[in-house]
Each structure stands twice: as structure tokens, then as C-alpha cells.
Amino acid sequence: MSRRIRLLSVEVIAVLVTIVLFWIPFYFVIVNALKDKKESSLLSLAWPTSIHLWDNMKAVITARDYMLVRAFYNSTLLTLLSIAVLIIVCAMAGYVMQRRTDRATPWLNFLVLSGLIIPPAIVPTIWVLDGLGLFKTMTGLVLVEVALGFPFGVLLYKGFMSAIPREIDEAAVVDGCGGIRLFYKIILPLLQPVTATIIVTSSVGIFNDFTNPLYFFPGAKNATVQLTLYNFQSQFVTQWNLLFMNILLITLPPLFLFVFFNKKIVDGMTAGAVKG
């Protein structure tokens, strides 16, 4: 009985911590997004005396010649392209690293792990992109996002790949499958659980990325959703109601994505951890 009480206490504490760390700030954003300029400047948790939902939403969407609409397009395009490249590259790398074992394998594993440890360098990356003619381009930013997500994706795919018997590869080769056809027709469809995990987790991270678009994709026409927060924030006057409405609008899509696909994330992470 005492053990059950301890477990219940831990669950209650976890719920309370979740409420403090997530729901209270989220409630704070919602209530201030519904207020007018004067009332929102108080930055309180009080419910607004009058609701200004549609007025604030219209002002945010139309600000700076519909900059938020362009930002949603840029962020969506960036996310889709990055995820497509990330899945193909990480799946192929994880497959090769799991199936081949030679003297270079420990070094390859070290390089992949170092990608999780070593922080990205802004200035050298800008220099490389500028030398390749990819600075301030969507292609360059996609390559940066893929490079940053590569180590995590490879480790997940490699761990999940160890559960796929080598006999499947051998049987496919005997039947006349080449390497590319073997991977895309047989192996890749078996990786759907971990692929779903990478899609959701990486999509949220890329869509909400602030630093990389700021440094590697500057310009008003290139703005992503996180950079639109500057529209309503300045040194002297900050329109808190519009700022919080902007935060609310750009938070809802990844939040819904994460909530709806939460089970697939857990399944993919667990499968990769157990089968690796």
C-alpha cells in the first residue's frame, strides 16, 4: 500500500509540475491575446473585460503587408523540404552503419555522436554557404536543418534497423534486388514507426526554429513564423496583445501536430530503444 501511495504522490507532483511549466504560461498567452492594448500592458493573468479575438487576429495577419502569411509559407516549405531530405539521408546512413561492420565503423559512430555534442558554428557556416552561393537561400537553410537533425535521426534509424533480420536482405538479393531497390522497396517501408517519430519531432523543431533562419536566411521576404515576433516588439513600445496573439497563432499548428501524433512518437522511440 505504501508503494502505491508513493507512486500516486509522484504522479500528482508530475501533474502539478506540468501545470506550472506549461499550462499556466499557455493560459497567460491566451488571456493576453484576447485583451486590448491597454489591458494587455498590465501583463496579468486576469480574464479580459472584453474579448478582442478577431480584432487582434486581423491586425496580426495584416501587419506589414501580410508578413505572417508569407512566414507561414516559408516555415511550411522549409519544414517539408527538410523532413523529406532528412528521412532519406538518415535512413540510408542508418541502414549502412547498422549492416556494415569494419574498421571504419567506430569512427563513423564517433562522428555521428560528435554531431550531438559539438555546437554549431555560425560564422564558419555562413562563410561556407556564401562560398557555395547558398547564403540567404531556402536550399542553404534546408541543408543546415538537415545537418543539425542528422545525428539524432541516424541513431534512431540505426537502433530500429537492428531489429530487421539480415535474412530479409539476403533473400532480396537472391531474388535479384539491387541495393537501391532493396532499400526503397523492402527496408524503408519497415521503418514507418521510427519515421513517424522523426517526422513529428523534427517538424516541430524546424517549424519553431528561430536561430537558423535569423542567421542563414535574413530578409523580410524570407521571414519564418518565429521571426514575425519582431513585428510587435520594440525598444520603446511593445504591443503586447498583438505579440501574444502572434505567439498563439504560431504555437497552435505544432501543438496540434504533437498532440495528435503523440502515440506514434512514443511507439517509435520505444521500439528503437528496445530493438536497438
Write structural notes for this entry.
The chain is mostly helical. The chain has one domain (63-275): MetI-like (MetI-like fold), CATH 1.10.3720.10. It is built from twelve helices and no strands. It has helices at 2-33, 37-40, 53-99, 105-117, 122-131, 138-161, 166-174, 179-187, 192-207, 211-216, 240-260, 262-275. The radius of gyration is 23 Å and the shape is globular. The model is unreliable at 272-276 (pLDDT under 50). InterPro entries: MetI-like (IPR000515), MetI-like_sf (IPR035906). One of its GO terms (cellular component) is plasma membrane. It is found in: Cell membrane. Residues 72-261 form the ABC transmembrane type-1 domain. It is a multi-pass membrane protein.
What does the oligomeric state look like here? Answer: single chain
Biggest sheet details: none
Q: State Rg.
A: 23 Å
Q: State the helicity in percent bands.
A: over 70%
Strand content: under 5%
Counting DSSP H or I runs of 4 or more residues, the number of helices is 12
Can you tell me the overall shape? Answer: globular
CATH homologous superfamily, by name? Answer: MetI-like
**Tally of strands:** 0
Structural class computed from helices and strand pairing: mainly alpha
Order of helices and strands: HHHHHHHHHHHH
CATH topology: MetI-like fold
CATH class: Mainly Alpha
CATH architecture label = Orthogonal Bundle
Q: Low-confidence stretches at least 5 residues in length (pLDDT < 50)?
A: 272-276
Q: Provide the number of structural domains.
A: 1
**Overall pLDDT, averaged?**
86
Instruction: Report, as a whole number of angstroms, the end-to-end distance.
Output: 36 Å
